[in-house]
Amino acid sequence: MEQSFIMIKPDGVQRGLVGDIISRFENKGFSLKGLKLVSVDRAFAEKHYADLSARPFFNALVQYIISGPVVAMVWEGKSVVATGRKIIGATNPSDSAPGTIRGDFAIEMGRNVIHGSDAVESAAREIALWFPEGVVGWTSSLHPWVYEK
Ligand code: UDP
Ligand code: MG
Fold first, then answer.
1. Which residue in 8, 115, 123, 130 is the catalytic one?
2. Residue 110 Cβ < 6 Å to ligand 1
3. Helix (H), strand (E) at residue 70
4. Ligand 2 mean position, distance from CA 142 (Å)
5. Are the beta carbons of 70 and 13 closer than 8 angstroms?
6. R_g over Cα of the chain
7. What pLDDT digit, counting tens, does each position of 84-96 carry?
8. What digits encode the pLDDT tens for the residues 49-100?
9. In the chain, how many domains are there?
10. What global pTM score does this model have?
11. Which ligand lies nearest to the CA atom of residue 90 in the structure?
């Protein structure tokens, strides 16, 4: 089953949005496979965002991610990567539809509350980076009430 790396950024933690955000993924029917509150250092944040290292906002982005603890999560389910991006909303909260996390909770790109993997391949890379210890293997007893088979 597909997995995505979802991270509540420092502003989401500071603003007390952790419970609401987790509820949105739970309510959809996705399964939580990994969860931890962590503070990461600059080198780790730079590795997570390595693909963006040439962009003008890179330093500010890294500074943002290391400015406080984040909630790192692995969510599992059918098409969770693409659907997770829809639940999160567009990168720029000005373009995020109401009803999405960024549409409901954010105003600026540099304070957009949450990260979600953009592809199955990047999800695998990010999960390996953030959860080198691995995640928890379990199956929800609600599975047959969420999936046809
Ligand atoms: N970002 C920014 N300015 C930009 C583009 C991105 O501050 O012009 C930040 C924003 O917080 C975004 C993160 O960099 O979430 C990673 O950028 P990406 O393009 O991967 O967006 P995402 O996948 O998070 O929607
Ligand atoms: Mg991205």
1. 115
2. yes
3. strand 70-76
4. 31
5. yes
6. 15
7. 999 999 999 999 9
8. 999 999 999 999 999 999 999 999 999 999 999 999 999 999 999 999 999 9
9. 1
10. 0.98
11. 1
Q: Tokens 């406080």 — which residue?
A: 68
**Alpha-carbon 50 to chain mean position:** 16
Instruction: Give the residue from 130, 101, 82, 92 showing the smallest Cα distance to 18.
Output: 101
* Alpha carbon separation from 66 to 51, 54, 62, 119 (Å, rounded): 17, 19, 6, 24
Residue 44 annotated as binding?
no
Q: State the Cα–Cα distance between residues 130 and 142, nearest whole angstrom.
A: 27
pLDDT digits (tens, 9 = 90+) for 106-141: 999 999 999 999 999 999 999 999 999 999 999 999
Q: Could you tell me the maximum CA-CA distance found in the chain, to the nearest angstrom?
A: 47
CATH, residue 78: 3.30.70.141
Per the annotation, the verdict on 143 as an active-site residue is no
Could you report the predicted ipTM of this complex, rounded to two decimals? Answer: 0.98
Which residue, 5, 1, 19, 10, is CA-closest to 113? 10
Q: What are the distances in angstroms from CA 127 to CA 16, 71, 86, 140?
A: 24, 13, 19, 20
Host domain of residue 40: 3-146
